[in-house]
Amino acid sequence: MDSDTSEQQIACVYCPEDGKKTFPPKKGSLEHVILSALGGRKGSRNICCMDCNNRLGLEIDDVLARTFAPLANQFNIQRDRRGAAPIIASKETLDGAQLEVGPGGQYRLKKATVTESETADGRPSFYVQANNLEEADRLRGSYLKKFGPNAQTTTEYFATSTPAPLHAFELKFGDAEKRSSAKMLLTLLATSVHPDRIRSDELRDIVRYINGEINIGHRVQPWLNIAMPATKEEYRFGHVALVVASAELKQLVGVLLLFGTFKVTVLLSDSWSGPALGVRYCVDPCSGHHDTDRIDGETLAQSFPQSEIPCDADLGADIGALIGELQERQRTKLIMGVIEEVKARIPEGASQEEIKRIVDEAANRLTKELLKIPYKRRLDL
Ligand SMILES: [Zn+2]
Ligand 1 centroid vs 265 CA: distance in angstroms? Predict the structure, then answer.
């Protein structure tokens, strides 16, 4: 193994041949194995410059991230650099106000609004639509200042509801998604081999493919029925990236499993000259837990089928399991949340009648949320 000295420079893998930017080992731009938009944590700084990272981020990674955004939203994944799960646009409205799907699949108002009008006797009136008490109170306060205490106010608070936008989850897996998948697997490889290996001839084609210079899309197979070693239960609905190399077959194959369901197999090289290799990275995008382990690459690579048969039937069953898990998690969270709220809202020494009113309201709301009916509830300010 070469030792890295501070004078050594390595070239960006994705820069054009006639103008490659260079950087010291481990000082390049941070490339994530699993995209940070999907909750990935681990990365490599031995691959590319910041310009190429940004360029390919816009060109391919953002496309893949958008494709999986509905799932990332519904699972309420926790992201390292980009914060909370993505927000999804919704066509739904409530009393004319545009709704959106917030992290965790919750309907909410896209924007708090105030509608001004007049009462029958000519006094100013305004109607506040807000997502929470603080927001409603703030808007109410600023309008009271504007109109004075004589204004008639009606303030309503929309409690959020959980819809099932997965009905509209359309999974396209085009050229950009394929290239981004190949890039993630190449990044995993870069975390475990010498930087020179990533820059060798045996990986040149896949690098050029990721870069959009050549089309070897046939080497990237979504939904291929290929056996992977079992992962810990914790990662059952997480992401797995796996690279395995066979010295005997001279093949380097990568497998990506997103949300424990969507499998993409990439032939990274068919002229591998290195040793047998097996590296696996698992991350649960909800908890942020992640692990990297080594596996027996030679044996695993040899077990991969030589004829490649996509298996849509298996994918259908897997998606069913994924949605079942998602609904179960959301239901549990919802029920526990309502129970906590009821406990907090019942004052000490409350009368039977008062308790009944609070419990009835909560039961009514829970029913609507479980039935995915958007609704609002009036808030006393
Ligand atoms: Zn570059």
Answer: 26
15: CA distance to ligand 1 center in Å?
4
Using DSSP bridges, classify how beta strands 277-283 and 290-294 pair: parallel, antiparallel or unpaired: antiparallel
Phi and psi based region of residue 95 (left: phi greater than 0; alpha: psi -120 to 50; beta: remaining): left
- 189 CA distance to ligand 1 middle (Å): 18
CB within 8 A of 57, min separation 6: which ones?
A: none
pLDDT > 70: what percent of the chain?
88
Domain boundaries, the chain: 10-68+171-301, 88-161, 318-379
CA of 44 to the centre of ligand 1 (A): 14
Residue-wise pLDDT for 291-315, tens only, equals: 999 999 999 988 887 656 666 667 7
- Cβ 370 vs Cβ 161: under 8 Å: no
CA 40 / ligand 1 centre spacing (Å): 22
Identity of residue 137: D
Distance 200 CA to ligand 1 centre (A): 16
Measure 207 CA to ligand 1 centroid, in angstroms: 12
Please give the C-alpha separations between residue 245 and each of 43, 125, 222, 294, in angstroms, as whole numbers: 20, 71, 19, 12
The Å distance, Cα 220 to ligand 1 centre, comes to: 23
For residue 53, how far is its CA from the centre of ligand 1 (angstroms)? 7
Contact 144, 153 (CB under 8 A): yes
Which ranges constitute the DSSP H helices of the chain? 50-56, 62-67, 69-74, 133-147, 175-190, 195-198, 204-210, 297-303, 312-345, 352-370
DSSP state at residue 158: -
For 120-160, how does the pLDDT look when each residue is reduced to its tens digit (9 = 90+)? 877 777 788 888 778 888 888 888 888 776 666 666 655 55
Say how many Å lie between the CA of residue 57 and the centre of ligand 1: 12
Q: Model's pTM, two decimal places?
A: 0.86
